């Protein structure tokens, strides 16, 4: 390749040889142009009967067709493409020295890309061409303009906007979140001549803190606008607020637990996320019911209703039996408590001396018969009373007989 860029002179006439030349095989470094060779020129030890060779320094054309690019120009073209890169045709043309930028571009594309060399070097275009999908169409794709469109304006009255400090024309608020965050960098300036590495690091840390505050502001504004929190706040105090579906206790607790994930989704995505979770819970419950039916040998949906009726009847009977057992156990417990209380009272009255016993006074209630209380009598007193009652009976009988 170095021979192609070398320049040769005729040894006899000292003219530059730009094309084909004749080299003597017997004499070292001896080249003749075609004119001197045809004239039979001899000089020094060289004789015109010496063996010779025809040498070409790149003037022949490698490819047939238009352009007539020589081998030297083809090599310069490839060398310039490797050195300056594809597409830099101005510098490539300067490196070739004999061709314009348009000619260099057409020759390279025709010979080395679309020609036989390109077909056997590069694979077909269809084999490596990726299937590109237009993500900017209005189909809710990842890059759809619908996802980054302007949010609708706040649905509030001018009085509410004035109360909130909202400016509709600027679509912004008078006071932002962390309104004094600019004080971190308002008086900050860099002085490379006097500040050392520690001072610069501290100032950069303040700038980083201010940047985080700006991100937090943007995030809060996005959440407020996306979830329409301002409209919801003022709508709660209006008389004409729309009636919403009342949530159950379980659903309310579930949404309270999931509220922390709202910061990672938009309002529409968050509602879809909750809907999907609730649907998953319903499917899990339904799946457990189907497992239960299958365990009891039920394989058709028509049998499920009859099975539930039988289960309800059996459960009702079991509940009635359980209720009767509960009442029975409660009655027995009360009976035991009453017997235990009587035992305690008997033990107290038996072990207490007579002079320490206190008479129990009862309140006399209106419209009630006064109760007659029997004193506790000793065994001798009881025998005396029984004898007296027997004597009274005998006397009454004798009086009746006499009459």
From TrEMBL:
Ranges of compositional bias, category Low complexity? 380-390
Span of domain SANT: 64-116
Region: Disordered; residue ranges are 120-153, 380-403
The record ties this protein, via CDD domains, to: SANT, ZZ_ADA2
Q: Which SMART domains match?
A: SANT, ZnF_ZZ
**PROSITE patterns noted in UniProt:** HTH_MYB (PS51294), MYB_LIKE (PS50090), SANT (PS51293), ZF_ZZ_1 (PS01357), ZF_ZZ_2 (PS50135)
Provide this UniProt record's keywords sorted from A to Z: Metal-binding, Nucleus, Transcription, Transcription regulation, Zinc, Zinc-finger
> In the record, what terms sit under GO molecular function?
chromatin binding; transcription coactivator activity; zinc ion binding
Q: Name one GO cellular component term.
A: SAGA-type complex
The UniProt record lists the ZZ-type domain at 5-60
Q: Please tell me whether the keyword tRNA processing is annotated for this protein.
A: no
PANTHER family, A to Z: TRANSCRIPTIONAL ADAPTER 2-BETA (PTHR12374:SF63), TRANSCRIPTIONAL ADAPTOR 2 ADA2 -RELATED (PTHR12374)
Can you say what this protein is called?
Transcriptional adapter 2B isoform X2
Taxonomic path:
Eukaryota, Metazoa, Ecdysozoa, Arthropoda, Hexapoda
């Amino acid at each position: 390749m170095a021979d192609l860029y070398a320049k040769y002179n005729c040894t006899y006439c000292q003219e530059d040889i730009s094309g084909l030349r004749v080299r003597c095989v017997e004499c070292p470094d001896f080249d003749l142009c075609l004119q001197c060779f045809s004239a039979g020129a001899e000089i020094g030890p060289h004789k015109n009967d010496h063996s010779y060779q025809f040498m070409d320094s790149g003037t022949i054309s490698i490819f047939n067709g238009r352009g007539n690019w020589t081998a030297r120009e083809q090599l310069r073209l490839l060398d310039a493409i490797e050195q300056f890169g594809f597409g830099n045709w101005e510098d490539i043309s300067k490196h070739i020295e004999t061709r314009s930028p348009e000619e260099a571009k057409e020759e390279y594309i025709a010979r080395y890309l679309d020609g036989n060399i390109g077909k056997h070097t590069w694979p077909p275009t269809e084999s490596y061409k990726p299937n590109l999908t237009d993500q900017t169409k209005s189909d809710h794709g990842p890059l759809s303009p619908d996802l980054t469109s302007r949010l609708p304006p706040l649905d509030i009255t001018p009085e509410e906007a004035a109360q909130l400090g909202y400016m509709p024309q600027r679509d912004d608020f008078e006071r932002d979140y962390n309104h004094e965050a600019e004080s971190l960098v308002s008086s900050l300036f860099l002085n490379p001549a006097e500040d050392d590495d520690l001072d610069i690091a501290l100032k950069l840390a303040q700038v980083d803190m201010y940047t985080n505050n700006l991100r937090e502001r943007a995030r809060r504004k996005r959440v407020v606008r996306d979830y329409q929190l301002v409209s919801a706040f003022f709508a709660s105090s209006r008389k004409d607020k729309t009636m919403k579906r009342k949530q159950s206790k379980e659903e309310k607790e579930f949404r309270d637990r999931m509220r922390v994930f709202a910061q990672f989704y938009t309002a529409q995505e968050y509602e879809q996320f909750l809907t999907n979770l609730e649907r998953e819970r319903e499917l899990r419950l339904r799946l457990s019911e189907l497992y239960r039916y299958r365990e009891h040998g039920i394989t058709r949906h028509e049998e499920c209703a009859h099975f539930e009726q039988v289960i309800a009847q059996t459960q009702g009977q079991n509940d009635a039996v359980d209720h009767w057992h509960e009442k029975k156990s409660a009655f027995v417990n009360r009976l035991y408590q009453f017997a235990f209380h009587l035992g305690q009272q008997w033990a107290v009255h038996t072990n207490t001396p007579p002079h320490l016993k206190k008479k129990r006074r009862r309140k006399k209630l209106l419209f009630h018969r006064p109760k007659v209380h029997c004193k506790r009598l000793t065994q001798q007193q009881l025998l005396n009373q029984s004898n007296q009652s027997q004597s009274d009976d005998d006397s009454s009988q004798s009086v009746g007989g006499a009459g």
